[in-house]
Design brief:
Elements: E1 5-10, H1 18-32, E2 36-41, H2 43-50, H3 55-71, E3 79-82, H4 88-97, H5 102-106, H6 109-117, H7 126-129, H8 131-141, E4 146-148, H9 154-171, H10 177-188, H11 190-206, H12 209-221, H13 227-237, E5 249-251, H14 280-288, H15 309-317, H16 320-331, H17 337-364, H18 367-394
Helix pairs in contact: 3-17, 4-8, 8-9, 10-11, 10-13, 11-12, 12-13, 14-17, 15-17
The structure holds tryptophan and iron/sulfur cluster (SF4).
Tryptophan (TRP) binds next to strand 1 and helix 8.
Family: Belongs to the class-I aminoacyl-tRNA synthetase family.
Keywords: Aminoacyl-tRNA synthetase, ATP-binding, Ligase, Nucleotide-binding, Protein biosynthesis
Protein name: Tryptophan--tRNA ligase
Length: 400
């Protein structure tokens, strides 16, 4: 009933690294040619943990947008915008908070984890507890049903779905809903109206999901329905009220775990990253300093790739022939570790070359970035206004 729409975001907390690229950005780039996409700089989310040092946020905002473009996000295809420039995020967050049970927020796995991990910081704030709800508002404000994120963010997409359901359940009921829905079926009339009723019965009586899909497709192609009637009939299929906010789902990249320089997942907090636009010398130096299989003390000692973090990077950057060369050469001590690392260095540099190229014009003229973001915010506000009109109406706030 709502068109597919992709919404995702990142917090501006510093330079992006290759983990962001392989974990999330590659996915964004693929999606932008398949769906309408909105990519958001989550500056308010950054504040929830960086409130004691706000100085990094502003610089990171612009660096991050350049990193996105460097990675291949195309401002001509996707909308790039900043959360705090669309105040409707705050309004929706507040309105959703009216029906969000505290226990839902307290049991989000990232909540207690983060508080423990960042014990040097007081995260016993209202803002931090509300972090996932603000994220739900981000997604639902644009009726984003597809949310490409890293694995760690899946619980936040799940709570978003639960909140949308609850919202629809609580506020989607209107006086005389069933009568209005029945009247709308009559308006479709004829065979199609009958088919809708059959499919709805099959879904409700037998839980036949294919029937549900078929009924939705039927509504999507039915011309002579008003916006309100169409929404009612979508909601009536599942027995509830009007569907005001869609149910979102996470989209994960196939292999989203990018290994870092030490074999752990690449992450700023482990200090094992290569940044997206790191200069070539520094890339080479970091990879040359990577630890290898400790059994290879001397050049003549054989090793085992499975005990070596460099091997994990070969999985990302090397073709089959190179990988065979590594396994053979490592196990027989036929190659040295420095030799083995070279294809990885070359692979990273080759991946980064087009990124530097795409970033260049924006580094030379920062007003280009500001213009892109200003246009994106404009577009985002338009969509946000539409959703908020429906939300306010459903919550009985549409008086003037
Ligand atoms: N919480 C996300 C992160 O830490 C960032 C984010 C904020 C987000 N709002 C979002 C991601 C909406 C997806 C959708 O990376
Ligand atoms: Fe690791 Fe390659 Fe050295 Fe083997 S040869 S230990 S895989 S760096």
């Amino acid at each position: 009933m709502f068109p597919d729409r992709v919404l995702s975001g990142m917090r501006p907390t510093g330079k992006l690294h290759l983990g962001h690229y392989h974990g999330v950005l590659k996915n964004w780039v693929r999606l932008q040619s398949e769906h309408e996409c909105l990519f958001m700089v989550a500056d308010w989310h950054a504040l929830t943990t960086a409130y004691d040092d706000v100085s990094v946020i502003e610089k990171s905002v612009w660096d991050m947008v350049i990193d996105w473009i460097a990675a291949g996000v195309d401002p001509a295809q996707a909308t790039i915008f900043i959360q705090s420039r669309v105040p409707e995020h705050a309004e929706l967050h507040l309105l959703l908070s009216m029906v969000t049970p505290l226990s839902w927020l307290e049991r989000v796995p990232t909540y207690k984890d983060q508080i423990e991990k960042m014990s040097h910081k007081d995260l016993g704030t209202y803002g931090f507890l509300g972090y996932p709800l603000l994220q739900s508002a981000d997604i639902l404000l644009y009726r984003g049903n597809l949310v490409p994120v890293g694995e760690d963010q899946v619980p936040h997409v799940e709570i978003t779905r639960e909140i949308a359901r609850r919202f629809n359940h609580v506020f989607g009921k209107e006086v005389g809903f069933e009568e209005k829905a029945e009247a709308a079926i009559k308006k479709i009339g004829g065979k199609k109206g009958k088919l809708y009723e059959d499919l709805r019965t099959r879904y409700q009586r037998d839980g036949d999901v294919e029937a549900l899909e078929a009924a939705r497709a039927l509504l999507a192609e039915t011309q002579n329905l008003s916006h309100g009637d169409r929404e009612r009939l979508f909601g009536y299929l599942e027995g509830g009220g009007k569907m005001i906010l869609p149910e979102s789902q996470p989209l994960l990249t196939a292999a989203s775990r990018m290994p870092g320089l030490d074999g752990n997942k690449m992450s700023k907090s482990y200090g094992n990253t290569i940044s997206l636009r790191e200069d070539a010398d520094s890339v080479a130096k970091k990879i040359k300093q990577m630890p290898t299989d400790p059994a290879r003390v001397r050049r003549t000692d054989p090793g085992d790739p499975d005990k070596c973090p460099v091997w994990q990077l070969h999985q990302v950057y090397s073709d089959d022939a190179t990988k065979a060369w590594v396994v053979e050469g490592c196990k027989s001590a036929g190659i040295g570790c420095i030799q083995c690392k070279q294809p990885v260095i070359d692979g990273v540099l080759a991946e980064q070359a087009p990124m530097f190229e795409r970033a260049q014009p924006y580094l030379e003229d920062p007003t280009l970035v500001k213009k892109i973001v200003a246009d994106g915010c404009e577009r985002a506000r338009e969509l946000a206004r539409e959703t908020m009109r429906d939300v306010r109406e459903a919550m009985g706030l549409a008086y003037s």
